[in-house]
């Protein structure tokens, strides 16, 4: 990460790997309850892949005070959210998932919560960034406290916005020197390997099946099995564990140029369109593919390659970014 170019390649590689984990996680989601291996993969992936993605998004939000930044965020984040929220509403109605055709812009469909929360995270910077590292402590406390409010759920992605905001703010507060010391440390790579392997072993042996909602962050403690006063402590421990895994993952990312590196610049297209493909393949082959791990991996990889291609961006950019 010595130069701007190598940093760009590094982050593009990281984003490609993370968007692959997003697609793969959604691909195996319907089958995780019947397969211990897939359940372990799913829980480990959902422990850190979105926090890592969010942290990187925060890292690139340092220009939030620049003129036109908020308008640009509205155009690049909220406009695609509104467009695809409407598209998903129509699709869900046509396939029979919804009995009536309703356009509820405040109840994000499936993975669209990320776009809505991303816009709110950028807004929250105007308050929390002023507090610097003290603001991170406040953000963590708010993320813990929001779970005690039963009404905080998926409406306007309120729960996820506050639960995941500490990762976004941490990414914003980190600079190149911070990351260089973390990622380039002498034993960072072997430590990262140990962390990832240990997490897989720990989750494979002891992760409770009813604890999956904790990884999603989209509802209150009460709705995750009954509220206890100690739930806030558990979320605090989850923050710690997640960051350990995130910073174990980051040193493993290469800074070299690969064919897939360019796709890291187009993760928005993969994120927005992969749901239609995943839902279609799962409806066609609901159970037959659950035991074919190689197919699940390869298919997820190909979805990323195709949707992240230049041709997809060229012909869908008017829809995604309102650019001709």
Secondary structure layout plus pairing:
Layout: H1 4-28, H2 36-59, H3 69-94, H4 113-128, H5 133-145, H6 158-173, H7 176-183, H8 188-206, H9 212-216, H10 231-249, H11 267-284, H12 293-307, H13 310-320
Helix pairs in contact: 1-2, 1-11, 1-12, 2-6, 2-8, 2-10, 3-4, 4-6, 5-6, 5-10, 8-10, 11-12
Give a description of the structure:
The protein has 324 residues and is mainly alpha-helical. The chain has one domain (4-320). It is globular and about 50 Å long. Helix 11 packs across helix 12. The protein has helices at 4-28, 36-59, 69-94, 113-128, 133-145, 158-173, 176-183, 188-206, 212-216, 231-249, 267-284, 293-307, 310-320.
Short description:
The protein is mainly α. 66% of the residues lie in helices and 0% in strands.
Give the proportion of residues in helices. 55-70%
For the sheet with most strands, the description reads: none
Number of separate helices: 13
Shape: globular
The overall average pLDDT, rounded, is 92
Number of domains in the coordinates? 1
**SS elements, strand count:** 0
Keywords:
single chain; 324 residues; mainly alpha; globular
